[in-house]
């Protein structure tokens, strides 16, 4: 199982290695010359940002496909678990507490899965707007780009406390008690 899960990561690393270390005949020096950059003084990240080889497109396609596949697994498993719990609750004629708890956990997991996407979108928005604003430094925007990603560990428990009823009641009792 671990080997199966690690294969997509190794494929990603192999594609990334091929993209990051292009051969000397790659069009990167030509592109940096077209935008008046000195290839010896330009950081490597700027040099590879203008790569337009098939490897770049393959890497982007692989990342998008891998992300979509990961979220598809989350959605399919969530739907199957929900159906199984609802069916078990109906057959055993128990209270719907299991269904309610499953609903709360499902909402929590979906929101926690969406957080990295929101962080990435905010980072991309900062990156895109920095291209259009001339008088700002890159360090200023780098701070905003990294902020959403670092807030994810803080927001995950907050989402859990807000969505799961038993946690929410305990926290609100602490705030409401004298």
Automatic annotation (TrEMBL):
Q: Which residues cross the membrane?
A: 56-79, 107-133, 139-164
Tell me yes or no: is Transmembrane helix among this UniProt entry's keywords.
yes
Record keywords, A-Z:
Membrane, Transmembrane, Transmembrane helix
UniProt KW Membrane keyword: yes
InterPro entries per the record?
7TM_GPCR_serpentine_rcpt_Str
Q: What is this protein called?
A: Serpentine type 7TM GPCR chemoreceptor str domain-containing protein
What is the protein's species of origin?
Answer: Ditylenchus destructor
- Give the source lineage, highest ranks first: Eukaryota, Metazoa, Ecdysozoa, Nematoda, Chromadorea
